[in-house]
Amino acid sequence: MSEVNAPARRYHSPRRKEQAAATRDAVLAAARELFVGEGYSSTTVAGIARRAGVAVDTVYAAIGRKPDLLREVVETAISGTGQAVPAESRDYVIRLREAERAADKISIYANALAGIQPRLAPVYVALRDAAGTDPDCAALWREISDRRAANMLKFVEDLAATGELRADRPAAELADAVWSMNGPEYWVLLVDQRGWSPGRFADWLADAWCRLLLAGDQARDQATVSAR
Questions:
Q1: Out of 95, 122, 205, 219, which could bridge 214 as a Cys pair, Cβ 3.0 to 4.6 Å?
Q2: How far apart are alpha carbons 78 and 66 in whole angstroms?
Q3: What are phi and psi of 83, to 5 degrees?
Q4: Sequential DSSP letters for 156-173
Q5: What radius of gyration do the chain's Cα atoms show?
């Protein structure tokens, strides 16, 4: 019997998928090392390929052009995985939104930042520096900065839903204040330059944000707990 009209079989290979994922991880690791160590402008796709031990065409196939590589390096540094993860799907955001007390929400986020910044801050600083001369990097810098600002407004609105947010300042202003302190630059100043530990940084942020964002009684209560 003829099988001319039989539907084509799709071939799925777990091993091939694993190899593709390993190649992608190697390319991203190489790109991160070079972007941070040598700067974006001095890094070439050929150099990334050499560092990763793959062909240049493999880099293009796995990720894309150099701006695509930088985007993926930044996104994976934020998510802590091999892929970009939307903010609402991140574990700490889910826990934050499930928490009932504003101080608990703030603590969850401050501690999450202390885990994110060691891998994100060096990449973010490299992106910031590249944004001064490269249009693609400038666009990515603005996009991520604006996205972070929008997410901070959601964070402040989530705090407001507890009824504990201070009411004498606009939510957008409070969100901008959080945005200024959750940036990698703040981490670099206190941890890299002043030698703070990640734990001290997280405790400081949680205490500072409780004092800054919460209404009088809640802020005083949290300050008393932090001082013990």
A1: 219
A2: 19
A3: -135, 160
A4: HHHHHTTT-B-SSS-HHH
A5: 22
**Would you tell me how many other CB atoms lie within 10 Å of the CB of residue 220?**
13
- Using the structure block, give the residue that is written with the tokens 């003829």: 2
Task: For the chain, list the domains and their CATH numbers.
Answer: 14-64 (1.10.10.60), 86-227 (1.10.357.10)
Chain segment 60-83, per-residue pLDDT in tens:
999 999 999 999 999 999 888 777
The H or E element that residue 228 is part of is none
- CB-based contacts of 87, cutoff 8 Å, min separation 6: 93, 151
Question: What does the pLDDT average to over 130-137?
Answer: 91
Q: Which residues contact 227 (CB under 8 A, 6 or more apart)?
A: none
Q: Which letter does DSSP use for residue 3 in this model?
A: -
Where is average pLDDT lowest: 46-55, 136-145, 212-221?
212-221
Counting every residue written for the chain, the total comes to: 228
Q: For 193-217, b where at least 16 C-beta lie within 10 A, e where not — what string? A: eeebeeeebbbbbbbbbbeebbeee
183: enclosing H helix or E strand: none
Regarding pTM above 0.90, the answer is no
Q: Exposure of 25 by Cβ count < 10 A (0-12 exposed, 13-18 middle, 19+ buried)?
A: middle
Q: Residue 42 has which token pair? A: 């001095």
Tokens of 179: 């945005």
Give the per-residue pLDDT at 13. 65
Q: Phi and psi for 223 in degrees, rounded to 5?
A: -65, -35
